[in-house]
Amino acid sequence: MSSQAGSENENNGEHLPTVREGGEGGVAVEEHDPFANPGLPPHEPRKQDIDERAAKRSERTVSLLFTVSMLATVGFIASFVAIDVDKIVYIFPLGHISALNFALGVTLGLALFCIGAGAIHWSRTLMSDVEIVQERHPIEATPETKTLVKSEWRQGTEESQIGSRKIIRRTLLGALTLVPLSGIVLLRDLGPLPETKLRHTMWDKGKLLINMNTDEPLRPADITVGSLSFAKPEGLEDGAHDFNKEIAKAALMLVRIHPGDIKDAESASWGHEGILAFSKICTHVGCPVSLYEQQTHHVLCPCHQSTFDLSDGARVLFGPAGHPLPQLKITVNDEGYLYALGDFDEPVGPSFWERG
User: Fold this and answer.
1) Region of poorest pLDDT, from 102-111, 114-123, 156-165
2) Are residues 237 and 214 in the same domain?
3) Domain that holds residue 23
4) Does the residue 253 lie in any domain?
5) Which residue ranges traverse the bilayer (predicted)?
6) Does residue 186 sit in the same domain as residue 203?
7) DSSP 3-state assignment of 310?
8) 3-state DSSP call for residue 47?
9) Positive or negative CA dihedral for 150, 155, 158, 162?
10) Is residue 337 within 8 Å of residue 353, measured between CB atoms?
11) Whose C-alpha in 30, 119, 247, 315 is 20 to 30 A from the C-alpha of 306?
């Protein structure tokens, strides 16, 4: 009796009592099955389902959110074009931050948020909220299931009212069309679009070679045979806002080699009494080259072991570097200080696609 009742309850999916024999005096006791399927609660229509004015209000709200998303995307693009990358502003409680980064973050965040909020409000107020139960089925769908899915898709499309709610459809398409423009605009930073910035450094004719450690102009006597010294161009001061950007291109290393040991005659003519000046920036990925072997005149990049022969125009002997280290032509002025006769003979650092 009890197994029969339990089976019935299970099959009907109703939360009905289960009869158990026993108890005092052999009287049957009824118990509720805690695992019985309660079923779905009765469907309650929303206000928008029965009041077209409420539905219109929801439609306007969704459209407003999509419209704000479009305006925010336009603001993102305008900010990217109009705001200087170096501009700093104070915003409480963030403190001093980049105005460009703040504007891009706010506008793009608002554009994406409004699309999401509009879609959620649309689904909660206008799309069908009737719950549909579907029994589990094999992984491979039967032809009947495929037909059912297609019909449910058509039904869902109709119930979403995307066909009849034209203003929602148009503003949604507008928002989704404009948002990808943010990513396209950001591709501009991947360019590169450096114009001629990668081809020139702060070195120019007449600029003194300043010792990186003492901040004093260098004389030939300051550089001994077999030593390696480092210099920066005159006028580039530590702590300046553009110091890191400029020294990353203008960093210079000086080596003094016996004139008879220099293999490249042209390289020797660019130096002074065996003092040669080369870029310190490796032509592989831009690491600082600084490990010098006095006996071989080889300099090694510590990152990927590219090796350059400073006695032979800094040509590559080993490693992934694709070009010799650019050389700086130097001489001495009337006061006996070393100075540059121009910029490097080649763009410094790693190769780039526009480089000839």
Assistant:
1) 156-165
2) yes
3) 2-32
4) yes
5) 62-82, 102-122, 167-187
6) no
7) helix
8) helix
9) negative
10) no
11) 247
Q: Give the three-class secondary structure for 240.
A: coil
Q: Are residues 95 and 166 in the same domain?
A: yes
How do residues 275-321 score in pLDDT, each as one tens digit?
Answer: 999 999 999 999 999 899 988 999 999 999 999 999 999 999 999 99
Res 317: pLDDT: 93
Closest CA to 275 of 290, 295, 292, 254: 254
Domain co-membership, 90 together with 23: no
Structural domain contains residue 353: no
CATH (domain of 305): 2.102.10.10
Q: Which residues pair with 90 in a beta bridge?
A: 96
The answer to whether residue 336 sits within a structural domain is yes
pLDDT of residue 27: 53
Cα–Cα distance for residue pair 213/236, rounded to 1 Å: 13
Provide the residue type at 311 as one letter: S
Q: Are 18 and 31 in contact (CB under 8 A)?
A: yes
Query: CB–CB of 215/243 below 8 Å?
Result: no
The runs of H, that is alpha helices, within the chain are 2-12, 47-50, 52-82, 99-125, 143-160, 166-186, 243-250, 265-269
How many residues would you count in the chain?
356
In this predicted model, what pLDDT tens digit does every residue of 24-35 receive, in sequence order?
555 555 566 777
Q: What amino acid is encoded at 307 in this protein?
A: T
Are residues 55 and 116 both part of a single domain? yes
**What are the beta bridge partners of residue 1?**
none
Structure tokens, 245: 């950007």
